[in-house]
Amino acid sequence: MIEIPDFVPHAPVPADLIDAYRDRVPEDLVELWQQYGFGTFGEGFVRVIDPRAYEAGIGDVLGKVTGQGIAIPIMVTGFADVVTWDPGDGVTGITYRSEETTGLGSRVSTFVKLTVGGGAKHLERKLDWGLFPHAVAKHGALAFDESFVFVPLLSLGGPKDVEHLQPRKTIEAIRTMVELQGVVEH
């Protein structure tokens, strides 16, 4: 697994979670869990999360309709985007604020390497990261279970500026966006 110099650990990944997901996720994700645990990287923007908690909280609204119909949430961003693993498609970013999806690589390690190597430029190109450092400067660092959300949502005419970003609980924010905008199918 690649070194992630700015990884900030939040908690170790329980052995029972690794056992439960070992046959559902790629080995490079298992290695990341074992080496780093749950935590943040990419200047605090990307969070390695507990897929059980997110499958329970948003599994029914992940919108996977292509391929094998499998989308396992493995990471989230500071803007309540979800990064999923699909054994047929690889790593996908679901950007609820813009109602889009983007391919992030065929392997988890590809996404991590590109994020570590490309930093802000890669995050901006793939996940529209640009306002994140400004939101942190204005509102402070997020709690591990929080993300910044546009209020009102962009889809409801809200402006895309830091003044309209507010911290919210990530799972609840995603459910609210889906309730108001619909599922982002992929």
UniProtKB/TrEMBL annotation:
One Pfam family from the record: T6SS_Tdi1_C
Ranges in coiled-coil conformation: none
Start and end residues of each T6SS immunity protein Tdi1 C-terminal domain: 122-170
InterPro entries linked to this entry: GAD-rel (IPR014983), T6SS_Tdi1_C (IPR015002)
Domain GAD-related: residue ranges: 10-90
Annotated protein name in UniProt: GAD-related domain-containing protein
